[in-house]
Amino acid sequence: MYQDKIILTPQDILEKEFKIDTRGYRLKEVDKFLDLIIRDYEQFINILEKLELENKELLEENLKLKTEFRNIRMDMQIAGQNEKEVTNVDILKRLSHLEKIVYGKDE
Q1: pTM over cut 0.70
Q2: Pairing mode, if any, of strands 20-21 and 24-25?
Q3: How many whole angstroms separate alpha carbon 48 and alpha carbon 30?
Q4: SS3 for 21?
Q5: Are 46 and 6 contacting, i.e. CB atoms less than 8 angstroms apart?
Q6: Residue 96 and residue 103: Cα distance in Å, rounded?
Q7: What is the pLDDT of residues 55-89, one digit of tens each?
């Protein structure tokens, strides 16, 4: 994904040899190579910043979804308990109503 933006590998940097002039290395060659290294490091920094931002956003979204899931699960448990209570109350009301009909007690 990001490999096409990066020119040098650590091995390239390690194995790079500069030609020596009478006064030392050729300055233009060294400068050109260092410019490539700098460009690569800039790309690495940009990539890292983007990945860190993406990671932060995903962690925040993950936390939000976990909280939402926990709340929904609690709501479902509460609703399940309420259904049982409503069902029990409903059964008692029906039983009471049937007893009144069977035993002839009017309201």
Answers
A1: no
A2: antiparallel
A3: 27
A4: strand
A5: no
A6: 11
A7: 999 999 999 999 999 998 888 887 766 665 566 77
